[in-house]
Structures are given as structure tokens and as C-alpha cells.
Amino acid sequence: QSVLTQPPSASGTPGQTVTISCSGGSSNIGSNFVYWYQQLPGTAPKLLIYRNNQRPSGVPDRFSGSKSGTSGSLAISGLRSEDEADYFCAAWDDSLSGHVVFGGGTKVTVL
Amino acid sequence: QVQLVQSGAEVKKPGASVKVSCEVSGYTFSAYVVHWVRRAPGLGLEWMGWIIAYNDKTNYAQSLQGRVTMTMPRDTSTRTAYMELRSLRSDDTALYYCASTSSSRAADLSFWGQGTLVIVSA
Fold it and tell me: According to the 3-state scheme, what is the secondary structure of A82-110?
């Protein structure tokens, strides 16, 4: 059972927009930044969005992130076949001595 | 350019220990943190803990307390992080990743190793 809650799957046709939600609590998303990772099949995870809505260099602007209260979301616009991957949200959690928490992951399928 | 290179795949028997290495290069100073994350088959990412490179402070996931140790010896020309997991069980079978960041209190894992497959099987 992951601390952050994501839908297990999402899908869309090429060109469509897919949105993935990430629900947390006051000790994680409510008081810290949300991060998003993309994991393509057979590869290591890659940082996609940092500090709620910032894109690292090289990440297309088709990917955007937002945060409101204790929830975050990732939108993929202009969906492409190469976007088919697992997406994970993450945040720092202030409980206990502090730790990183992940969402369970969302498998995005391009139909 | 920051790079993390991990050691090769391991096959262990239940009850044994495994030690995975992660060679870190590209940082000018030791002001960085090495996290360890694993992904078991069919499951999501699980944070295991971190070690701060400049002072060796560690922070482990509560679920792994007592079974995991993270180290980063300073007596070598290269900085290599190690993650040792003891009393292995079948559900420890996973891909293990190291990742680095500049912050110890955020989830921004900026750079990742290629992953090390650990299989626990009798």
C-alpha cells in the first residue's frame, strides 16, 4: 500500500491529453514539493517534473505538473507512442525522521 | 556530468546478504546525497534510504531498519556508495537503483544508476 495514491492505469490516443492524479496528505504533498518520474520499459526512472511544475532540461513542454493542497497532477498533452511508460509521483514526508514516499505508479498506454 | 554506475546482477539464497555498489562521478564537492530505491516485479518504486556523502549520515526506511546498511568510504580515489541488505527473503527480489541529489529533505532524485538485479531464490 503506497502512501501516495495514483490510478493504476491511464490511456489515450495519439495527440490526446492524459492527466494522472496523485493524492497524499499533510505530512507529504501538503507541506512539500511533488516530483514526477517516468520509467520506460527496461530503463531506470527519469526525473520528469520537479518542485511541482518545473521541467529539467531536455523534458518536452508536453509534460506539465501542478499541485493543489495535498494533491498533485501530471498532464501529458499531445500524447505520443514513446510516452507509453510507468509514471510515479513522489514527495518528501516529514513524519518519523523524514523519508521519501512514492505513489504506486500509473501505467500509461497509447492506444 | 554526474554519472552513477552500479555493480552487476546477483543471485542469493534466502537468509544470505547482498552488497550492491554505486560509483558516483561528476560532483565537484561532496555536497550530495545518494538514495537507494528498489522495484520488485509487478510493484512500484520503494524508497530504501539515503546516505549523505560529506558526513556519512544515513536515514533508512522504517520497513528495512535492522536489515539495511548504507556506506560510502572516503579512503578511495573514487566515491562509491554501498548498500548491504541482510537476511534476504524472496520478496527482496527486485531491481535496485542508486540515485543522487543535492538535497537530503526532498524527493528530487536527479541522477540514476542503471540498476542492479538481485534475485533471491533457493
Answer: HHCEEEEEEEEECCCCCEEEEECCEEEEE
